[in-house]
Every structure is written in structure tokens, then in C-alpha cells.
Write a structure and sequence with these properties.
By secondary structure, the protein is mainly alpha-helical. Helices cover about 75% and strands about 0% of the residues.
Length: about 280
């Protein structure tokens, strides 16, 4: 059986080792192998490279003898990656699961410290502030435990600890109004950097395992940035038109809640992926 590039598949000793059944049945088929030459023939509507007018200057065809070695390296790298994931999956599954359950008390703490809620239930802000600190420390600890998997998790954990410590210090010093503005902006910036590291770390560990979910984490970060910009714009708009500014701020707040709910769903799905992850039993075919 002749291959796309002109080799005799039946006389190839590397086919069984690489799990290649030939261009028609194996590596050349969509989604079952990475042979660039077979894919190129399929895209251009050729059965063989010999019928292509660009064969003489084709770098793929010129490197056809290297295809088996490239495939061998690819399979070795994929096996190593899957074995590494199999070691990391229990850690990811455990601590991402804890982070999922942390979202509810974290959002509850934010609700308890809102001015409107405190006006109705005086004294609730103290309990909310304490719960906020505890949730912040727990989040930092969970991220720290994920650090051995990816350095970005540890960076995010350090940002989280600094954020909690700075918030507690600001409260203890009783900083108000203008004096609290600069620290508040610093904490917002640090929080955004932390979220960036966390969301992209989730995307990185999911890449190659669940690419669709990885891309959703990246998009969620973009949505969060747009919402924060929207909240800033709403505050500026309140100077010109208090009513429009207030409506814009309410809309941005609702969107922020939607992001929190989406984050909770994605965390649950990400934890589920790794809690159910298992390495392949044999070599890749």
C-alpha cells in the first residue's frame, strides 16, 4: 500500500511501533494522527503528493523521512504529559473542589458588608468582615497547595495573602475617604493581578485535557476586565448624570454577580475534570 508521500506502508517497520495503519486508515485520517503530508494532500484534493504541482518546492515532502521520528517524539512527549497530569490530577481535583465550595461564603461575606444591608441589619458588617478575612485566608491556602502544580497558583496565593493583610491593616488604622483611596486602588490592582494568575492557571492546566473549558476561563477573565472598566465608567458618569451613573453601576454589579456564578460553575467543572482524570493504560495508538 503506497502512502501519500510515496513510501510503501507495508514495508515500513516503524508503522506497528507508532500505531500507524497508513495514510488511508491511520495517521492521514482527520483526528487520528498528525501527519502533515497526508493532511496537506487531503486539503488540496490529492491522493498522492506526486500529482501536486508544488511537490518540488514542498518542505513537507522534502522532510518525509523525518515524519516517523517526529511522531515518535510527539508520542513520547504526550505520554510524559499524561503521566505528569495523572500525578497532578489528585491535587488539582482536591483543592479546586475546596475552592468551588469557598465561592458561596465569599459572596455571602461581600453581601454582609454592603452598606444597604448594614443599614437594615446593623452590626452585620463585623461578622461579614471576619468572614471575608477567613475566606481570603482559605483561598490563599488552597492556591498555595496548588503551587506545586503550577507556579502561577503560588504567585496568586502570595497576592491573596498580601491583599488580606493590607485590607486588615487598612481597617485597623481606620483609613477613610481620601486616605483610603490609594490603598484601595492598590488592592484592586493586586486583586486583578491575582485573578489573572488564577484564571490563566486554570486554563493552562486544562489545556490538552479540556481545551473548550480552558478557553472559557480565558474569556471569563476578559469579561471581568470589561465589567471592572464598566464600573469605573459608571462612577465617572455619576458625576455628570447621577441617575444614568447609578443605572450603569447597578448593571455592572449584576454582571459582576453573573461572573461570580459563572466562576463557581467553571470551578465545579474543572474540579470534576481532574477528579475523574486517569492516565491511559497503554501507549498511544
Amino acid at each position: 500500500m503506497e502512502s501519500c508521500c510515496g513510501k510503501d506502508c507495508l514495508s515500513c517497520a516503524q508503522g506497528p511501533e507508532l500505531g500507524c495503519a497508513g495514510c488511508r486508515e491511520g495517521m492521514g485520517r482527520p483526528f487520528t494522527g498528525p501527519c502533515e503530508i497526508a493532511a496537506c494532500c487531503r486539503e488540496r484534493g490529492h491522493d498522492f503528493c506526486a500529482t501536486c504541482t508544488y511537490i518540488n518546492g514542498c518542505p513537507r515532502w522534502a522532510g518525509r523521512e523525518e515524519v516517523p521520528e517526529r511522531e515518535r517524539r510527539r508520542q513520547a512527549e504526550e505520554r510524559a504529559r499524561r503521566e505528569r497530569l495523572a500525578e497532578q490530577a489528585p491535587v488539582l481535583g482536591k483543592w479546586l473542589w475546596w475552592m468551588f465550595w469557598l465561592v458561596v461564603p465569599r459572596e455571602l461575606a461581600s453581601l454582609m458588608t454592603m452598606d444597604r444591608v448594614v443599614e437594615i441589619l446593623p452590626g452585620l458588617d463585623l461578622a461579614g468582615a471576619l468572614l471575608t478575612v477567613l475566606c481570603g485566608l482559605a483561598c490563599g491556602w488552597f492556591l498555595w497547595k496548588l503551587g506545586p502544580v503550577l507556579r502561577d497558583y503560588r504567585t496568586a496565593a502570595l497576592c491573596q495573602f498580601v491583599n488580606v493583610a493590607a485590607s486588615v491593616a487598612a481597617q485597623a488604622l481606620g483609613l477613610r475617604d481620601a486616605a483610603a483611596l490609594l490603598p484601595a486602588l492598590g488592592l484592586i490592582g493586586l486583586g486583578m493581578f491575582r485573578d489573572y494568575k488564577v484564571y490563566h492557571a486554570h486554563a493552562q492546566v486544562l489545556t490538552g485535557v479540556d481545551d473548550a473549558l480552558a478557553e472559557k476561563w480565558r474569556r471569563l477573565w476578559k469579561y471581568l476586565i470589561w465589567i471592572l472598566w464598566g464600573m469605573g465608567g459608571a462612577l465617572l458618569l455619576m458625576i455628570v448624570s447621577p441617575l444614568l451613573g447609578l443605572l450603569a453601576l447597578v448593571a455592572a454589579t449584576v454582571a459582576l454577580v453573573a461572573v461570580a456564578v459563572t466562576e463557581m460553575v467553571y470551578l465545579w467543572r474543572t474540579a470534576k475534570v481532574f477528579r475523574g482524570f486517569c492516565a491511559p493504560d497503554g501507549p498511544e495508538g
